[in-house]
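Our platform keeps sequence and structure together, in a single record for each protein. Such a record has a labelled line for the sequence and another for the backbone structure tokens. Nothing more is needed to write down the fold, since each code stands for a local backbone conformation. For reference, a complete record is included directly beneath this paragraph:
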Amino acid sequence: MAKEKKRRSQSAVTAVALTIAGSDSSAGAGVQADLKTFSAFGIYGLTAVTCVVAETPGKVVKIASVSAATVRAQIEMLFESFPIAAIKTGLLYSGEIVAVVASALAERAASGQRLPPLVIDPVMVATSGELLLRDDAITHYEQELFPLASLITPNIDEAAKLSGKSIADLATMQTAGEKLAKKYRVPILLKGGHLRRGHATDLLFYNGRITKFTAPFTRGIRTHGTGCTYSAAIAAGLARGLSLERAVRSAKKFVSATIARHLKWQTSAGTSIYALNHLPKESRG
């Protein structure tokens, strides 16, 4: 009886987080990576799927968009049914979808209902280099969705596009990050892993301060889904009630571990294919 009460109590307090993003057929990025990350943090994950991406690490073959009306229906139904404690967005693909996501969230806030912390990963380009975001989407991001954010998490390529600043090192990262924080008036986490230096260094611009988060850079593997995993882990921390800085610190540690303990297979062509390992240590034999 006591064990049954404990199980009911644990179920009652499980935090819920929502990811609004694309589906990745290889499950290394997108909503699949987000759900694995939420589970690793003990969070119950929900999804609103924006598009379906036929891809494997290093190659995108096709992207099929979900209708904006269907995206809105998913979001509205989930808010009606679950006590959502945090939201993250990933690949939204088109301006129409960015606009409908912003509208659904803004309408909730305007009706007097609390809008949970919102982490925006402005996914624009795949790790393999393929363009994932239509040009019309950026204006909708800047005018409609970014103002609702608790945190925006661009990588250096995305930050360069949004800021108009070339980024080649930590100094130019800081310049671009300061410009974005001033431009959008929300916290910015600028991710520096794509600089491929000895350490992967990220800069958090928040409350007029710059906080640095550093981890060793793992060489020799082609990672896929690190940005999705990172932003999902931050959302998970916020859903658990962590401060923004603590949530970022926890997420940085988690994503670094998923890279370090990566999975590896051989393809039929004899080449190596890698994936982040989201499984907790106790799940691995």
